[in-house]
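INFO  loader      accepted 1 record
INFO  loader      residues=363
INFO  predictor   begin
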Amino acid sequence: MGKPDRPGHQLWSVAYLAVRRVLSLVLLVLRTSDSKEIEILVGRHELEVLGRNQPRPPLEPADRAWLAALSRLLAKERRSAFFVRPETLLRWHRRLVARHWTYLRCPGRPPITDELVTLIVRMALDNPTWGYQRIRGELLGRRHRVAASTIAKVLKTHCLDPAPRRSSATWRHFLRQQAAGIVACDFFSVDTVSLRRLYVLFHPSRVAPGLPPRHHVEPHLGLGHPVRSNVTADLCDAGIGVEFLLRDRDAKSGPGFDAVWESEGASIVRSPVRAPNANAICERWVRTVRSECTARLLIVSERHLRRVLDRYVCHYNEHRPHRGLAMHAPYPRGNVTSSTPARITRIRRHEVLAGLINEYHAA
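INFO  predictor   done
INFO  writer      dumping tokens
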């Protein structure tokens, strides 16, 4: 790319070229007519030869100004020898006018922030049936005034089509919708010091989002009304309707257990034989609570087990990092941890279950 032309440089070039042409005209007047005719023929032939090698010669701003001035002096019958067409002269004039009248241009709409662009793209991906106006209305509810044309431009920039963007739901989206009405549960046993076996019934919060995880300790196998009064009451209070109950084929879950859930309108789904991955969340929680808590303590009684599990469940849900949640707790307590790292000397240790588990917090 060439260097940009400066106005002062163009003005001096035009003045220099004008002086040269005026002196050439003075010398031309003093010459004889025969020599002029011969020179004109030679010049025309040179132009014809140059036109064969370079049909469109590059012109400087000074050349354009000089040719535009001569076009006013050239006779009509001689304009056929002029290698510049009339529309070319008009285009030069329009360009000159545009450079001269440089009005202040209106800046237009201010650009939206990157965070708002990310939010628009996220809404479009999460909701395939939302159009420009629907996304605009949702942003207005969050006090963001964005025009529908701006939203359309953002989606087009990110290669997103207008609504509907998908003709059918993906398997991941479909399974997540189905999982909203499924509750998984399982039992695990704990032996006390007196060799009494206690059974713990639990359901994880991962399957029912928004419901605080709870455990239910029942010392007998005949589980009926206590399960309905505890588990089903918690689910109803959270506004979650259970359509399917996923459990394994353990003998502890007898006909009485299934009858309680079926009376609430839920269908019982049994996992395949010897397939722990079919109820992987429950199986993993049993291993975690045993390795970190119950296998490292001597349980005295049912009351002792309830107190231990209450404290461990609180630690598990509010402090313990989870790899499936990007090393965050499901329901972190207190304020959100700031992005600024705390000083090492201001970190305090908090003991859980008399030092069985340690938590570290900023002082």
